[in-house]
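Weekly structure sync, notes
Attendees: PL (lead), two postdocs, one rotation student
Agenda item 3: pending single-chain targets
PL asked that the sequence for the first pending target be pasted directly into the notes so everyone works from the same version. It is reproduced below exactly as submitted, 277 residues in total.
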Amino acid sequence: MAGARRYFRAALSASGLLVIILMIVFADHLSNHDPTAGMNLRSRFVPPALMEGGSWEHPMGTDNLGRDIFVRVLYGGRVSLRVALIASTLSSVLGIAVGLMSGYLRGWIDRLMLRLTDMWVSFPFLVLALAVIAAVGSTPTVLITLLTLAGWVYPARVTRAQTLRLRELDYVRASVAIGAAPLAIMWRHILPNVLPVNLVLWTLSVGTLVVIEGSLSFIGLGVSPPTPSWGNMLADGRIYMQDAWWLSVFPGAALMLTVLCINALGDALQKLGENGR
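Predicted structure, written out during the meeting:
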Protein backbone atom coordinates (compact mmCIF):
# COMPACT_ATOMS: atom_id res chain seq x y z
CA MET A 1 0.00 0.00 0.00
CA ALA A 2 2.80 2.39 0.91
CA GLY A 3 4.57 1.56 -2.35
CA ALA A 4 1.41 2.32 -4.33
CA ARG A 5 1.10 5.69 -2.61
CA ARG A 6 4.70 6.50 -3.50
CA TYR A 7 4.12 5.64 -7.16
CA PHE A 8 0.91 7.69 -7.18
CA ARG A 9 2.68 10.67 -5.58
CA ALA A 10 5.53 10.45 -8.09
CA ALA A 11 3.09 10.20 -11.01
CA LEU A 12 0.99 13.10 -9.72
CA SER A 13 4.04 15.32 -9.19
CA ALA A 14 5.46 14.44 -12.60
CA SER A 15 2.09 15.11 -14.26
CA GLY A 16 1.72 18.51 -12.59
CA LEU A 17 5.27 19.45 -13.53
CA LEU A 18 4.72 18.26 -17.11
CA VAL A 19 1.61 20.44 -17.44
CA ILE A 20 3.54 23.48 -16.19
CA ILE A 21 6.46 22.80 -18.54
CA LEU A 22 4.16 22.27 -21.55
CA MET A 23 2.34 25.54 -20.85
CA ILE A 24 5.66 27.36 -20.63
CA VAL A 25 7.07 25.74 -23.77
CA PHE A 26 3.94 26.41 -25.85
CA ALA A 27 3.31 29.90 -24.45
CA ASP A 28 3.38 31.31 -28.00
CA HIS A 29 0.27 29.28 -28.84
CA LEU A 30 -1.63 30.07 -25.63
CA SER A 31 -1.60 33.85 -25.99
CA ASN A 32 -0.89 36.37 -28.74
CA HIS A 33 0.29 39.08 -26.36
CA ASP A 34 3.92 40.19 -26.26
CA PRO A 35 5.47 39.71 -22.80
CA THR A 36 7.85 42.68 -23.09
CA ALA A 37 6.64 45.09 -25.78
CA GLY A 38 2.88 44.73 -25.40
CA MET A 39 2.45 47.93 -23.37
CA ASN A 40 -0.94 49.66 -23.41
CA LEU A 41 -1.38 52.35 -20.76
CA ARG A 42 -5.12 52.46 -21.44
CA SER A 43 -5.34 48.86 -20.20
CA ARG A 44 -3.39 49.31 -16.95
CA PHE A 45 -4.46 47.25 -13.94
CA VAL A 46 -7.23 45.31 -15.69
CA PRO A 47 -8.36 42.73 -13.08
CA PRO A 48 -8.39 38.96 -13.71
CA ALA A 49 -11.19 37.57 -15.86
CA LEU A 50 -13.23 36.20 -12.94
CA MET A 51 -13.37 39.60 -11.23
CA GLU A 52 -15.70 42.46 -12.02
CA GLY A 53 -14.28 44.48 -14.89
CA GLY A 54 -12.06 41.64 -16.02
CA SER A 55 -11.84 40.11 -19.48
CA TRP A 56 -10.82 36.72 -20.85
CA GLU A 57 -8.51 38.60 -23.21
CA HIS A 58 -6.35 38.98 -20.08
CA PRO A 59 -7.28 35.97 -17.90
CA MET A 60 -4.84 37.00 -15.13
CA GLY A 61 -5.25 40.73 -15.65
CA THR A 62 -2.66 43.30 -16.70
CA ASP A 63 0.18 45.06 -14.90
CA ASN A 64 1.03 48.74 -14.36
CA LEU A 65 2.09 49.08 -18.01
CA GLY A 66 -0.90 47.24 -19.46
CA ARG A 67 1.06 44.06 -20.21
CA ASP A 68 -0.72 40.72 -19.99
CA ILE A 69 0.12 38.92 -16.72
CA PHE A 70 -0.70 35.45 -18.07
CA VAL A 71 1.80 35.56 -20.91
CA ARG A 72 4.43 37.19 -18.69
CA VAL A 73 4.04 34.40 -16.12
CA LEU A 74 4.56 31.80 -18.85
CA TYR A 75 7.58 33.55 -20.36
CA GLY A 76 8.94 34.24 -16.90
CA GLY A 77 8.77 30.52 -16.25
CA ARG A 78 10.90 29.93 -19.34
CA VAL A 79 13.65 32.10 -17.91
CA SER A 80 13.47 30.75 -14.36
CA LEU A 81 13.29 27.08 -15.34
CA ARG A 82 15.92 27.34 -18.07
CA VAL A 83 18.39 28.97 -15.70
CA ALA A 84 17.65 26.43 -12.96
CA LEU A 85 17.78 23.37 -15.24
CA ILE A 86 21.03 24.33 -16.96
CA ALA A 87 22.73 25.40 -13.73
CA SER A 88 21.60 22.27 -11.88
CA THR A 89 22.81 20.01 -14.71
CA LEU A 90 26.19 21.72 -14.95
CA SER A 91 26.70 21.70 -11.18
CA SER A 92 25.77 18.00 -11.03
CA VAL A 93 28.20 17.08 -13.81
CA LEU A 94 30.99 19.09 -12.17
CA GLY A 95 30.20 17.74 -8.71
CA ILE A 96 30.04 14.11 -9.86
CA ALA A 97 33.36 14.40 -11.70
CA VAL A 98 35.09 15.97 -8.69
CA GLY A 99 33.51 13.51 -6.26
CA LEU A 100 34.51 10.48 -8.34
CA MET A 101 38.13 11.54 -8.59
CA SER A 102 38.31 12.54 -4.95
CA GLY A 103 36.71 9.37 -3.60
CA TYR A 104 38.51 6.91 -5.86
CA LEU A 105 42.00 8.38 -6.23
CA ARG A 106 42.24 9.65 -2.63
CA GLY A 107 45.57 11.16 -1.59
CA TRP A 108 46.26 14.84 -2.22
CA ILE A 109 43.32 15.11 -4.63
CA ASP A 110 40.92 14.08 -1.87
CA ARG A 111 42.49 16.43 0.65
CA LEU A 112 42.37 19.32 -1.81
CA MET A 113 38.71 18.62 -2.60
CA LEU A 114 37.76 18.51 1.09
CA ARG A 115 39.49 21.81 1.82
CA LEU A 116 38.00 23.41 -1.29
CA THR A 117 34.44 22.35 -0.45
CA ASP A 118 34.79 23.51 3.16
CA MET A 119 36.03 26.89 1.94
CA TRP A 120 33.34 27.17 -0.73
CA VAL A 121 30.47 26.36 1.65
CA SER A 122 31.71 28.93 4.18
CA PHE A 123 31.93 31.71 1.56
CA PRO A 124 28.72 33.83 1.40
CA PHE A 125 27.06 33.25 -1.97
CA LEU A 126 25.36 36.66 -1.97
CA VAL A 127 28.72 38.44 -1.63
CA LEU A 128 30.03 36.50 -4.64
CA ALA A 129 26.89 37.30 -6.64
CA LEU A 130 27.15 41.00 -5.81
CA ALA A 131 30.82 41.16 -6.80
CA VAL A 132 30.39 39.29 -10.10
CA ILE A 133 27.24 41.13 -11.18
CA ALA A 134 28.80 44.50 -10.30
CA ALA A 135 31.80 43.59 -12.47
CA VAL A 136 30.18 42.02 -15.54
CA GLY A 137 26.46 42.81 -15.29
CA SER A 138 23.38 40.66 -14.89
CA THR A 139 22.54 38.26 -17.74
CA PRO A 140 21.13 34.71 -17.80
CA THR A 141 24.62 33.39 -18.64
CA VAL A 142 26.15 35.10 -15.61
CA LEU A 143 23.29 33.82 -13.45
CA ILE A 144 23.78 30.25 -14.68
CA THR A 145 27.50 30.46 -13.95
CA LEU A 146 26.89 31.75 -10.42
CA LEU A 147 24.30 29.08 -9.64
CA THR A 148 26.56 26.36 -11.06
CA LEU A 149 29.37 27.49 -8.79
CA ALA A 150 26.96 27.61 -5.87
CA GLY A 151 25.60 24.10 -6.40
CA TRP A 152 28.50 21.79 -7.30
CA VAL A 153 29.61 21.12 -3.71
CA TYR A 154 26.65 18.97 -2.69
CA PRO A 155 26.76 16.41 -5.53
CA ALA A 156 30.55 16.31 -5.08
CA ARG A 157 30.25 15.38 -1.41
CA VAL A 158 27.51 12.82 -2.01
CA THR A 159 29.43 11.24 -4.90
CA ARG A 160 32.64 11.10 -2.86
CA ALA A 161 30.88 9.33 0.01
CA GLN A 162 29.31 6.80 -2.38
CA THR A 163 32.62 6.25 -4.18
CA LEU A 164 34.48 5.56 -0.92
CA ARG A 165 32.01 2.76 -0.24
CA LEU A 166 31.93 1.36 -3.77
CA ARG A 167 35.71 1.23 -4.25
CA GLU A 168 35.95 -1.39 -1.48
CA LEU A 169 33.49 -3.81 -3.10
CA ASP A 170 34.75 -7.10 -4.50
CA TYR A 171 34.00 -6.45 -8.17
CA VAL A 172 35.91 -3.15 -8.04
CA ARG A 173 38.85 -4.82 -6.31
CA ALA A 174 38.76 -7.54 -8.97
CA SER A 175 38.93 -4.92 -11.72
CA VAL A 176 41.96 -3.37 -10.03
CA ALA A 177 43.59 -6.79 -9.72
CA ILE A 178 43.32 -7.51 -13.45
CA GLY A 179 44.90 -4.15 -14.27
CA ALA A 180 41.90 -2.05 -15.31
CA ALA A 181 42.65 1.67 -15.57
CA PRO A 182 41.23 3.92 -12.82
CA LEU A 183 39.26 5.95 -15.37
CA ALA A 184 37.69 2.78 -16.80
CA ILE A 185 36.75 1.55 -13.32
CA MET A 186 35.16 4.89 -12.41
CA TRP A 187 33.25 5.00 -15.69
CA ARG A 188 32.04 1.38 -15.84
CA HIS A 189 31.61 0.33 -12.23
CA ILE A 190 31.26 3.37 -9.98
CA LEU A 191 29.48 6.03 -12.05
CA PRO A 192 26.37 3.90 -12.79
CA ASN A 193 25.95 3.26 -9.06
CA VAL A 194 26.21 6.91 -8.02
CA LEU A 195 23.84 8.23 -10.68
CA PRO A 196 20.52 7.26 -8.97
CA VAL A 197 21.22 9.23 -5.80
CA ASN A 198 22.52 12.13 -7.87
CA LEU A 199 19.34 12.07 -9.96
CA VAL A 200 17.33 12.67 -6.79
CA LEU A 201 19.77 15.38 -5.72
CA TRP A 202 19.55 16.98 -9.17
CA THR A 203 15.75 17.04 -9.01
CA LEU A 204 15.76 18.70 -5.60
CA SER A 205 18.45 21.17 -6.65
CA VAL A 206 16.33 22.35 -9.59
CA GLY A 207 13.63 23.46 -7.15
CA THR A 208 16.22 25.12 -4.93
CA LEU A 209 17.78 26.98 -7.85
CA VAL A 210 14.37 28.18 -9.08
CA VAL A 211 13.89 29.80 -5.67
CA ILE A 212 17.43 31.24 -5.65
CA GLU A 213 17.00 32.64 -9.17
CA GLY A 214 13.69 34.19 -8.13
CA SER A 215 15.30 35.67 -5.01
CA LEU A 216 18.18 37.19 -6.99
CA SER A 217 15.79 38.63 -9.57
CA PHE A 218 13.57 39.98 -6.78
CA ILE A 219 16.42 42.02 -5.28
CA GLY A 220 17.66 43.17 -8.69
CA LEU A 221 20.62 40.80 -9.09
CA GLY A 222 19.00 38.39 -11.53
CA VAL A 223 17.32 38.79 -14.90
CA SER A 224 16.80 42.48 -15.68
CA PRO A 225 13.48 43.95 -16.86
CA PRO A 226 11.79 44.11 -19.30
CA THR A 227 12.62 40.39 -19.66
CA PRO A 228 10.12 38.74 -17.32
CA SER A 229 11.07 36.28 -14.62
CA TRP A 230 8.99 35.27 -11.64
CA GLY A 231 11.34 37.09 -9.28
CA ASN A 232 11.31 40.49 -10.98
CA MET A 233 7.54 40.23 -11.53
CA LEU A 234 7.13 39.80 -7.77
CA ALA A 235 9.39 42.79 -7.20
CA ASP A 236 7.48 44.96 -9.69
CA GLY A 237 4.11 44.04 -8.23
CA ARG A 238 4.82 44.34 -4.52
CA ILE A 239 4.14 48.10 -4.41
CA TYR A 240 0.67 47.54 -5.91
CA MET A 241 -0.39 44.73 -3.57
CA GLN A 242 -3.30 46.62 -2.00
CA ASP A 243 -4.92 47.72 -5.25
CA ALA A 244 -3.67 45.17 -7.82
CA TRP A 245 -2.77 41.99 -5.95
CA TRP A 246 -2.71 39.89 -9.12
CA LEU A 247 0.60 41.46 -10.21
CA SER A 248 2.39 39.53 -7.46
CA VAL A 249 0.05 36.68 -6.58
CA PHE A 250 0.07 34.93 -9.97
CA PRO A 251 3.87 34.82 -10.50
CA GLY A 252 4.28 33.89 -6.83
CA ALA A 253 1.74 31.08 -7.19
CA ALA A 254 3.47 29.83 -10.36
CA LEU A 255 6.83 29.75 -8.58
CA MET A 256 5.35 28.02 -5.53
CA LEU A 257 3.49 25.35 -7.53
CA THR A 258 6.51 24.62 -9.71
CA VAL A 259 8.84 24.21 -6.74
CA LEU A 260 6.27 22.09 -4.88
CA CYS A 261 5.92 19.74 -7.88
CA ILE A 262 9.71 19.48 -8.32
CA ASN A 263 10.34 18.83 -4.63
CA ALA A 264 7.48 16.33 -4.38
CA LEU A 265 8.87 14.49 -7.40
CA GLY A 266 12.36 14.44 -5.90
CA ASP A 267 11.02 13.23 -2.55
CA ALA A 268 9.00 10.49 -4.25
CA LEU A 269 12.02 9.36 -6.30
CA GLN A 270 14.12 9.26 -3.13
CA LYS A 271 11.58 7.09 -1.32
CA LEU A 272 11.19 4.82 -4.34
CA GLY A 273 14.96 4.38 -4.43
CA GLU A 274 15.07 3.56 -0.73
CA ASN A 275 12.22 1.09 -1.18
CA GLY A 276 14.07 -0.52 -4.10
CA ARG A 277 17.16 -1.05 -1.98
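Discussion points:
- The chain has one domain: 2-276.
- The chain has a mean pLDDT of 85.
Action: rotation student to compare against the earlier draft before next sync.
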